[in-house]
Amino acid sequence: MAEKGKYAIGSFSPRYTPVIQAVLRAAQKAQSPFICQISQKELERYGITPKEFADEFYARLQSEGITVPAVLHLDHTKTFSVIQEAVEAGFTSIMIDASEKPFEENVRISKEAVEFAHAHGVSAEAELGMIGTTDYIETDNDEELYTDPQEAKRFVEGTGVDSLAVSVGTAHGVYMVKEPKIDFARLEAIRQLTPVHLVLHGGSGVPAWMIEKAIRLPQGGVSKVNIATDLELSLLEALGREERMTNAELKALPPEELNAGLAAVEATVLDKIANFLGSQGQAADFTL
């Protein structure tokens, strides 16, 4: 539906369980379809289990009266047991990331994860090429290797993956040295050779016009955009902090302080939905 409507679904990472409430409220206010996600490294860094994260997500769906399409995604994950744990906890999609491996090994590992996910009624994303990072929260290194369109075709056919994260110039984290860019010609070439949904990681800090162009490519472009760092930056700024906390530390904050942080995140998500993704008002596209 996003591809047909020329918008993208935001895959937002709250990183802390209390922040799930803020991102869901924003999606509901904007009447936007919505993906809530967390990666393996985020689970480890913030001290959360897949079950804790999933339990909070589903509890908030009920308590907040969420009626827009909202699903739960496991982002970058390299350990099969974490994927199994997430599926058991109720995650509706997973991402296997073996992008640092040689092509054939990436295919083999990804295919195994895809088959496991599909057997449990869960969709699967994988990565081809390597998406760089600047803060090491989602991935292990800052290496960048652009996705080869012909390899993308072989990869999709060999794995049966539902969506493909492509490396076309964006990076995880905050752009402090390099400038954000998107190789639109490469993205178009990948789109022409692969029928699956394309995912753009590293959406934080990328100019809105770049995101919009990537979504609206003539043959169909990116239909899922991952946004994590911008949410945490707005949270920390509202709290008057610079250093990340653990999940337990955030939960221990006084209610008035926490609420100020959650309001800032909600405003950021609303802005991304309206000015990046174009998904506001699109909840009606989906039958639940």
UniProtKB/TrEMBL annotation:
CDD domains linked to this entry: TBP_aldolase_IIB
Record carries keyword Zinc: yes
GO MF annotation, one: zinc ion binding
Domain of life: Bacteria
InterPro entries from the UniProt entry: Aldolase_TIM, Class_II_FBP_aldolase, FBA_II
A biological process term (GO) from this entry: carbohydrate metabolic process
Entry binding sites for Zn(2+) 1: 76, 172, 201
Coiled-coil portions: none
Binding sites annotated in the UniProt record for dihydroxyacetone phosphate: 173, 202-204, 226-229
Identification of the protein by name: Class II fructose-bisphosphate aldolase
Taxonomic source organism: Paenibacillus lycopersici
